[in-house]
Amino acid sequence: MDRVKTSANEPCSSGTIQTKGNEDTIERHKKPHKRKATSVGGESEEVGETESSEITIPKSKKQKVESVSSQLFVMGENNVGQLGFGLTIERLMRPTLLELSDYISSIAAGGMHSVCLTESGEVITFGCNDEGALGRSGDEEMSPDEVEIPEKVIQISAGDSHSAALTEYGHVYLWGNFRNGNGPMGLVADGVKEMRPVRILSNIQISKISSGADHLACLSRDGIVYTCGCGEQGQLGRLPAVPDPAAVPLRIPIEDIWTSNYCTFLKAEETGQIFAFGLNNCCQLGYENELVAYTPKQVLSFNGKTRKEIAGGQHHTLILDSDGLVYSMGRKDYGRLGLEDNAGDKSSPTLITSLENEKCSNISCGDAVSFAVTEEGSLYAWGMGCNCQLGHGNEDDCHIPRLVEGNFANFWKVLKVSSGGQHTLVLATPRES
Predict the structure, then answer these.
(1) Share of residues in the chain with pLDDT > 90 (%)
(2) DSSP secondary structure of 243-255
(3) Secondary structure (DSSP) of 132-198
(4) How many other CB atoms are there within 10 angstroms of residue 3's CB atom?
């Protein structure tokens, strides 16, 4: 049966994935036509759906420097080129090497596009560009290419239809479009999408950026949080929820920020307390009896341990603490919480016991999928399997974290993972022999 997106604000219930209104139904792919792809050995092979972790695309014009460094692997759906192979391949069931012209230092998977940051500070994008999320135009939208930004970039983020970059000078560049329940709403001007990067918050130095589905949070070097974009689900943390960049009214300095699709999380500088706002229809903010939080509210259920990282999807949240333990909360459907099959929705952080013997260093969420990277460089994935973005080689839902195995796991050490709407990016470096 097809799984349908409905309203993000609906109470949680089994059977559908809920997001904002006016979304198209996501259908399972029919059996794809076979297409040509180039393998590592240089021979052509017929490829439609593939489980291979050995398929690459040709290098572009630049010559890669021969040194041991991180490289990009991709998996999941490729219906709009979000895996970087053009339309050569329909989908990839396992992590597959995508050779680029430079080594990659950071990754961000958007709704249907991908953003990569090279070690030299350049931004590369590929995938869907109908709302300008690639930051460039031309006929090669589905193939990796560079975004023109006048400064060295040190951080990137991606949402459903927008992307952002933070430079070494603390400047933020934003491109694409935000959407609300009525459709495209514009980026920095009402109803106008931006096909090229535009600078925002020009008089403020920023230290971190984080993208939700249709909003952006920026942390200034002074500990103030600024948000922009869609505020229908409270994710801007302020009223009135005007889309223009503005400060969140919180009178304590903030040291870190994270976003999920429709939520924002803040970490206080002095106390380490966590504040959250946004959509809470499945208790994904960590407290009960409030469907939407329009202003920051302390999450008391987060007290007790130092929170290192927070990630979230449509209706669930993962938390990584300083001991390397991973917790989940929110909606249980399709196994996205990583708990037992009979576990219900969770309104507070719940330890994922199957990972308690693994010290984790990174977490990520797609709409209904979850990932954890261990300090040893292993990748665990769980949740909805129909888009093949878990990397297990099948379309089965996975209710408990499962190791991504095969040649990829044997020869590559995972550093970071980023999951989008229907695809996943993995940053890895060769394992020592």
Answers:
(1) 77
(2) SS-EE---SS-EE
(3) STTS--SS-TTS-EEE--SS-EEEEEE-SSEEEEEETTS-EEEEE-EEETTEEEESSBTTB-EEEEE
(4) 17
